[in-house]
């Protein structure tokens, strides 16, 4: 039986607005999600034993049952016991390039890759929407990671509408290696500080989401206008993460000193990205930030925006 090697892209959030509480304890969102060309490689191959095995080259990633990739494999095993009985478990090897606990959905993308990979390996034949429905049970970002590209995401972040591709823009992503922000902490703190702005009536939620749908960010994307997109970058979670993590605020401020289109924290952070219109500018910005912030803990990557979700490695 063959093995599959999949590329699992990171995501950034070009727009993230928190609209209200949900009965399931999550938040109602309106986001624009964007894949970037910074990818983990996830190899899935039959291992001839009873249990799934996870291997990963990154010390901060657990290789046990708590790994989101393991949980994805278990989910598919439980949903398709006959396929599991026929083909057996698999070894899942994660070559980690996406920084961990960064707001770049690395774990979600690995889980998405395992769903796609085992669907192929076990010849289950699930469609992309079916895989996304399963993925939503693992985490709010997993459905987006499967399809990738540029998308408007509402609900918990798992209701997706594709937007036009933006693959002629570039990002510089910066993250302090030893800094991690807990996503539950970020949402909980936001609720404590800004919960009085939440709406809960279905018609109010729909109006706020429609406002984003018909708003300037989506229009800028439709026109593929990098400068307008940069003007509309927005993330509510910056309001709680930047004051609590001054290094992140400083990195964001440093980016503004260079020739970028715009900058924003991604998701719950602590990674910060800067948009540029060419790879050359992105490299110059990376070099400039590196000269300004000499702390070796700061890591910087350059990547294009990407129209790909999970895909088989060439
Ligand atoms: C903030 C975002 C933006 O894309 O990404 P990250 O920064 O984590 O990458 C997402 O909303 C995170 O998505 P993801 O990381 O998949 O979330 P999950 O594992 O499902 O949830 C982690 C925790 O985040 C909170 N959460 C998440 C999504 C949501 N719509 N409302 C929430 O309140 C909940 O406290 C939940 O327990
Ligand atoms: N496959 C995985 N890759 C990365 N982190 C994982 C994975 N599985 C579980 N984790 C755990 O999930 C946490 C969040 O990681 P990650 O998905 O990289 O961040 P984020 O949700 O901020 O994008 C990490 O602290 C890590 O311990």
TrEMBL record:
The keyword Methyltransferase belongs to this UniProt entry's keyword annotation: no
Active site per the UniProt annotation: 11, 141
Secretion signal, residue range per the UniProt entry: none
Keyword terms: ATP-binding, Isoprene biosynthesis, Kinase, Nucleotide-binding, Transferase
Top EC group: transferase
Record pathway: Isoprenoid biosynthesis; isopentenyl diphosphate biosynthesis via DXP pathway; isopentenyl diphosphate from 1-deoxy-D-xylulose 5-phosphate: step 3/6
Domain GHMP kinase C-terminal: 217-291
Coiled-coil regions listed in the entry: none
GO molecular function per UniProt: 4-(cytidine 5'-diphospho)-2-C-methyl-D-erythritol kinase activity; ATP binding
Residues reported in the UniProt entry to bind ATP: 99-109
Segments forming domain GHMP kinase N-terminal: 67-149
Catalytic activity reported: 4-CDP-2-C-methyl-D-erythritol + ATP = 4-CDP-2-C-methyl-D-erythritol 2-phosphate + ADP + H(+)
BP-aspect Gene Ontology terms: isopentenyl diphosphate biosynthetic process, methylerythritol 4-phosphate pathway; terpenoid biosynthetic process
EC number: 2.7.1.148
InterPro entries documented for this protein: GHMP_kinase_C_dom (IPR013750), GHMP_kinase_C_sf (IPR036554), GHMP_kinase_N_dom (IPR006204), IspE (IPR004424), Ribosomal_Su5_D2-typ_SF (IPR020568), Ribsml_uS5_D2-typ_fold_subgr (IPR014721)
PANTHER family: 4-DIPHOSPHOCYTIDYL-2-C-METHYL-D-ERYTHRITOL KINASE, CHLOROPLASTIC (PTHR43527:SF2)
Family per record: Belongs to the GHMP kinase family. IspE subfamily.
HAMAP family the UniProt entry points to: IspE
Function summary: Catalyzes the phosphorylation of the position 2 hydroxy group of 4-diphosphocytidyl-2C-methyl-D-erythritol.
Protein name: 4-diphosphocytidyl-2-C-methyl-D-erythritol kinase
Species this chain originates from: Oxynema aestuarii AP17
Gene: ispE
């Amino acid at each position: 039986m063959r093995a599959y090697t999949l590329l699992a892209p990171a995501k950034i959030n070009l727009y993230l607005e928190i609209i209200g509480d949900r009965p399931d304890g999550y938040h109602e969102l309106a986001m624009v999600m964007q894949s970037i060309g910074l990818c983990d490689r996830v190899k899935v191959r039959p291992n001839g034993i009873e249990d799934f095995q996870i291997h990963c080259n990154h010390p901060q990633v657990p290789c046990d049952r708590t790994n989101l990739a393991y949980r994805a494999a278990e989910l598919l095993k439980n949903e398709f016991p006959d396929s599991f009985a026929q083909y057996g478990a698999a070894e899942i090897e994660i070559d980690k390039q996406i920084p961990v606990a960064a707001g770049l959905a690395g774990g979600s993308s690995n889980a998405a890759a395992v769903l796609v990979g085992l669907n192929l390996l076990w010849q289950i034949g699930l469609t992309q929407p079916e895989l996304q429905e399963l993925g939503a049970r693992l985490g709010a970002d997993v459905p987006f990671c499967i399809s990738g590209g540029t998308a408007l995401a509402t609900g918990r972040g798992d209701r997706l509408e594709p937007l036009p591709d933006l693959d002629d823009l570039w990002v510089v992503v910066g993250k302090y290696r030893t800094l991690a922000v807990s996503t539950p902490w970020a949402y909980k703190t936001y609720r404590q500080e800004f919960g009085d702005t939440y709406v809960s009536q279905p018609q109010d939620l729909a109006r706020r989401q429609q406002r984003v749908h018909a708003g300037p960010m989506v229009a800028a994307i439709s026109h593929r206008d990098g400068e307008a997109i940069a003007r509309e970058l927005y993330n509510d979670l910056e309001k709680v993460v930047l004051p609590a993590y001054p290094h992140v605020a400083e990195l964001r401020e440093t980016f503004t000193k260079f020739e970028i289109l715009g900058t924003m924290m991604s998701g719950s952070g602590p990674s910060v990205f800067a948009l540029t219109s060419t790879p050359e500018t992105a490299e110059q910005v990376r070099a400039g930030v590196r000269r300004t912030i000499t702390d070796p803990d700061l890591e910087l990557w350059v990547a294009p925006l990407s129209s790909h979700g999970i895909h088989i490695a060439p």
